[in-house]
Design a protein that fits this description.
This protein is an alpha+beta fold. It contains ten helices and 13 strands. β8 and β9 form a beta hairpin. The chain is elongated and about 60 Å long. The chain binds fe (ii) ion. The site of fe (ii) ion (FE2) has 5 residues, from loops.
């Protein structure tokens, strides 16, 4: 696949240096330790971590072996040989979160009006313009996690749509202050009714943060900062670990159908099948 319909052409969220940094942190190996185990000069590894150059095919495979990531997929990423292709489903709309570099989404029922918002963030005026364009009846405000670039406009949206229900995992809910009291206390696997026959399923995917959540609607999963095209989120949790993040993706997201479209919190959309085939962390 190549072109991504309904989507501006944007780069992958993580470049080879980001992948190397996340995998090194996860494996708790610094450039000296990696150098000892691979025979690669630590200064070269330090430079790659800063985005100065990239490893060759053989070096990438050697590093991946030590870092417990996939050698072939990491070598492809280092050589920038892969870009995802996924179509924005007709019931999903994307909007940027200016001034943040994150993605916001609205999705709808067939009536084209009943809507759910994924991650209320960015300039409130811009966001409310996007939500009011319909005009939509906003049923849910779904929050993937506690970081400001995903929830700093919650109060503004909640004020504009007082009937909308806020959905956020309790482990992250402090980030929205008093509005946390209004949030539906969801747990892994909970289904939120949406329309007569549809439901939104909440998947608790700890790792990036303790309360990180993904939301599945029909054949689309909104993955927040848990899963990006070709990468995963960094670890900013109090108790969850890198291993927890990898398990969240392997067990809860990779068990979805391969053609499930992944709408991430940053970077371009992808599919579960493409991530299984190309994401170096799996
Ligand atoms: Fe985040």
């Amino acid at each position: 696949m190549s072109a991504t319909a309904g989507w501006p052409k944007i780069g992958l969220e993580d470049d080879p240096s980001d992948l190397l940094r996340k995998a090194s942190r996860g494996a708790k190996l610094d450039p000296n330790a990696l150098g000892r185990r691979t025979g690669i000069e630590p200064a070269a590894i330090s430079a790659w971590l800063k985005g100065d150059g990239v490893p060759t095919e053989d070096q990438a495979r050697s590093l991946a072996g030590v870092l417990s990531i996939d050698p072939g997929k990491f070598a492809d990423a280092a050589a920038r040989r892969w870009y995802p292709g996924a179509e924005l489903p007709p019931y999903v709309r994307h909007h940027p979160h200016d001034p943040h570099p994150s993605n916001g989404y609205l999705f709808f029922l067939e009536d084209g009006k009943t809507a759910a918002l994924v991650d209320p963030a960015g300039y409130p005026k811009t966001l409310l313009n996007a939500v009011n364009e319909g005009p939509y009846a906003l049923r849910y405000i779904l929050i993937t996690h506690k970081h400001a670039d995903h929830c700093d406009a919650t109060a503004d949206v909640a004020r504009a749509f007082p009937k909308a229900e806020i959905v956020m995992h309790r482990a992250d809910v402090k980030a929205i202050g008093d509005l946390g009291k209004r949030a539906i206390p969801v747990a892994d696997g909970d289904e939120l009714p949406f329309g007569d026959e549809a439901a939104i399923r909440m998947l608790h995917t700890p790792g990036h943060t303790d309360g990180s959540s993904c939301f599945l609607f029909r054949s689309t999963v909104f993955s927040g900062d848990t899963l990006f095209a070709g990468s995963v989120g960094g670890i900013f949790a109090d108790v969850s670990t890198y291993e927890d993040l990898l398990a969240s993706v392997s067990l809860k997201l990779f068990s979805l159908d391969d053609d499930t479209v992944v709408m991430p919190g940053h970077g371009p959309p992808t599919t579960i099948g493409q991530e299984k085939a190309h994401n170096p962390f799996f």
